[in-house]
């Protein structure tokens, strides 16, 4: 794993949360994106080298809606940038970690993603992400 790529924060209202975090971090939201497959609207801010991803549920059945219902607003996951997501997934499986995905899937911000079960990381949901390279 190369570095923390972003911290994901679950929010109830994306619009008001964008305003809060723009003022808090003194930077503009540079991108919003719907990830229909995950039933989530996202917004990205970049204060320095790392990013903050705000996550708003678009369906009551989405993982973010369930998280908000159970835990309320707050840190949802920490994402780490990797060079080769397939290789890193295999390494983690060999180390005994449970992955929530059998294969990487398309996530927000031009990334392929996979998640490590929080029960294997002291309650923290870990996301692996690799930039999608266009040929």
Please explain how this structure is put together.
The chain is α+β, with helices and mostly antiparallel strands. The chain has a single domain, classed as 2,3-Dihydroxybiphenyl 1,2-Dioxygenase, domain 1 (Roll), CATH 3.10.180.10. 23% of the residues lie in helices and 38% in strands. It is built from three helices and eight strands, in the order E-H-E-E-E-H-E-H-E-E-E. Strand 7 and strand 8 form a beta hairpin. The longest helix is centred in the N-terminal third of the chain and has 12 residues. The chain is globular. The chain starts with a strand and ends with a strand. The mean pLDDT is 95. GO terms for molecular function: metal ion binding; methylmalonyl-CoA epimerase activity. Its EC number is 5.1.99.1.
